[in-house]
Every structure is written in structure tokens, then in C-alpha cells.
Design a protein that fits this description.
By secondary structure, this protein is an alpha+beta fold. It has one domain: Aminopeptidase, CATH 3.40.630. The chain is 28% helix and 36% strand. The chain has four helices and eight strands. The chain has an eight-stranded mixed sheet, with helices on both faces. α1 packs across α2. It is globular, with a radius of gyration of 16 Å. The mean pLDDT is 93.
Length: 180
């Protein structure tokens, strides 16, 4: 889905959230690999990303053309700072009311309110799209992210014990949801 871009000024910085375009594919791929190398809290390691720029373009175009998906890029003072997305669970009537979200931010931009802005936008747009429930997973020791999700009303609904990260370290993976 395509939504209107938003600009916010926070603490003297201009924050822009906008939908990704095919021209962003290379930046997204290289940026995501960098993010994966900066943190153990994302789903895989940088060496596990094997998409080509053409495949990333197809992914972006698919997100933009699907009423149940949203992919946003975040920029702080013109610099790519992260991305966020949601996607409907499936086309099944039983799960059509549910969507899952993801947020990834470069380390230099964490702790500055960008995740909050991204999460607010995702929840607003998901509700407009007709979703009734948002879901996510987060590592138990990702205290900053868990705190943000809890402030927005997400509730823990299950755990996968000893979920592994790329380093091999284990931490529970918490499943959370929020009624929209």
C-alpha cells in the first residue's frame, strides 16, 4: 500500500517517513545488511541475505501494490535511518484481521524516539486498512523494544524458549499482540 509521507520535527531533527520505491532497493539491501551486523536483535545475520537488487525491487513493488502490506523508510535530516513494515497474516478469513510488524533502526538512531514514530504510523495505517490485531516477536533481552511495545499496549501472549541468534546465544522470543 502507498500512504502519504509524513514529516516531523523532533529535538531539532527533521524526520521523514515515506514509502519505499524501486529506486531505494540497493540502499535498502545494503542498509539492512549493515543493521543486521550492528545488532543481535534482528532475525538473521548479514551473510544470510542473498536477495539481489532486482528481487528487492520486486519486493518493494509487491508491498506498494498490496492493500495488506506497508513498507516505510525513515530518514533523519535526510540520512537513511531505518525501516518498518506490516503485512497481513494471510488471505484466509480466519486470519484476515491480523497483521505482523517489524521495525529496524540503525544503531546511531536508536534511543531518539524514531521507533515510537514508526510504530505510531504503522498502527494508524494498519487500523485504517481494517486490521483488528497487530502482532510481533521480540527477544526477551531487548529491553528497549519491549518497553516501547508495552507502552503502546502490546501484551505478551507466548514465548519460544531459548530462541537462537546468529551468535548462537539464546534468549526467549516473546510473542506479543495488540488489539487495534
Amino acid at each position: 500500500m502507498i500512504v502519504e509521507k509524513i514529516k516531523i520535527t523532533k529535538d531539532g531533527s527533521e524526520i521523514l517517513l515515506r514509502c519505499a520505491t524501486a529506486e531505494d532497493a540497493e540502499m535498502l539491501l545494503s542498509g539492512y545488511k549493515k543493521m543486521l551486523g550492528e545488532t543481535q536483535f534482528l532475525s538473521c545475520g548479514p551473510d544470510e541475505i542473498s536477495l539481489t537488487v532486482e528481487q528487492e525491487k520486486t519486493f518493494i513493488e509487491g508491498s506498494n501494490n498490496d492493500k495488506d502490506k506497508l513498507l516505510l523508510l525513515a530518514f533523519v535530516n535526510g540520512k537513511y535511518a531505518g525501516n518498518c513494515n506490516f503485512a497481513g497474516k494471510t488471505a484466509s478469513r480466519r486470519t484476515a484481521h491480523r497483521a505482523s510488524l517489524g521495525i529496524a533502526v540503525f544503531q546511531e538512531f536508536t534511543g531518539k524516539g524514531l521507533g515510537k514514530i514508526m510504530l505510531e504510523k504503522l498502527l494508524t495505517e494498519a487500523k485504517k486498512a481494517g486490521f483488528e490485531q497487530m502482532e510481533l516477536t521480540v527477544y526477551a533481552d531487548n529491553i528497549r523494544a519491549r518497553s516501547l511495545y508495552e507502552k503502546f499496549g502490546f501484551i505478551e501472549c507466548g514465548r519460544i524458549p531459548d530462541a537462537r541468534r546468529i551468535s548462537g546465544a539464546g534468549s526467549d522470543e516473546i510473542r506479543m499482540y495488540k488489539k487495534l
